[in-house]
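Predict structure. Chain length: 491.
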Amino acid sequence: MTITGENFDTEMGNKPDLVGEMRLKNIHKGEDGNEEFDEDGKPRRTGTVWTASAHIITAIIGSGVLSLAWCVAQLGWIAGPLALFTFSFITFYTSTLLADCYRSPDPVNGKRNYTYMEAVKANLGGAKYMICGVTQYINLVGISIGLTVTASISMVAIQKSICYHKEGHEASCAVSNNPPMISFGIFEIVLSQIPNIHKLSWLSTVAAIMSFSYTLIGVALSLQRIISGNTGNTSLGGIEVGPDVSEVQKVWRSFSALGDIAFAYSFSLILIEVQDTLRSPPAENREMKKATMIGVTTTTLFYVMCGCVGYAAFGSNAPGNLLTGFGFYKPFWLIDFANVCIVVHIVGAYQVFSQTVFAAFEAWVIKKWQTSKFITREYVMNIAGKRFKINCFRLVWRSIFVMFTTVLAMAMPFFNDVLALLGAMGYWPLTVYFPIEMYIAQKKMKRFTFRWVALELLNFGCLVVAVAAACGSIQGLTKALQVYKPFTSKQ
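Prediction complete.
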């Protein structure tokens, strides 16, 4: 094993352009004639429509897809599918507007905006830039914590399934969430040393395959239940008011369902960062629109299958997690495999979201302390003929970030309720408001023209839904806090 040192800036892509000192005008050529750097001085981007689609699918199709049967159960056969298709269209449309903001002022030949925040700053100015940053990064950190909780739930489900299979259905198989969370955190510390999102294509591809796998398993088991005739009651209006559900609860549940569906389509907060991985030519905005079409269309297909087939199977008793509705017993091996797929998918999703946080913080630190060897020095290790790059600052700070999210997940095992609130608050500004306002500014659109009015009506309508969803999330969070005991969660 040999160890050598080199500049951290090369691997991180933090050329002088990133820290605002200078811009390289020409594309540099390597010894083999290939382009080593793009026109901005950063390492040549190699992403394609398919790698971007994998990132999008990994970000959108979370294990939350398994809650869509519950969402449709609250809304019914009319409003449920309608909500799925409506949010699908809104997300795709506003994402195409956002894709045109990667470069400004011209969407094809303008200056690159490497992050969502930079795009907002270039198009809308400093005040909204700060609001965007606070909203985006609170959501990104919150998602990382929520993913840790969700992964532990699936890991615990596997342990309980094994326990019931060995000890019998009457055995007491309560398992603490804490050890699985710690194991997940340790694994993420290792993966967090992957330098940047550009290097995550393989992990996103694996994660996307896993998301398809567990979704299809949930749909297949639901179809089996439908064929057997063991189904619940369904209706056009969703869960009915009665002894078990009051009118107020019906309203809160409907609001919460809308929030869950809206949040299930949230990926715009990392769209610009994903677009920054695409090679050019062809133009990045055109390729990103293709990737968005593939990603949103694919996820909508799976969402409708999972939500509607799950509702048909369980009716008003649809569980919050579709896989838990089949119990831990039969077919235990298939449900265990589905939970393994969930964990593997979440491993990749955690990295897709957290790498955006890593990149933003590291760019700021490098700009502030450019001469620090602790921050900028890369150590290249040759192990068994393979080169691995280690940076002390990256190792320390990323490990601290993962440990922070893991400890918070252990302290607040109900964090998915908090995440639903963050999602409800973050969907409107990041997926709808900023893309629309940037597009209006970029096109210098005049007020009160037909298109301006249509865009602002869409903006206002999504705000109303977001406020309603936030109210539903707060009500669920209030219930969770009534029985809250930190670090003592068991299932």
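Summary: The chain has one domain: 47-482.
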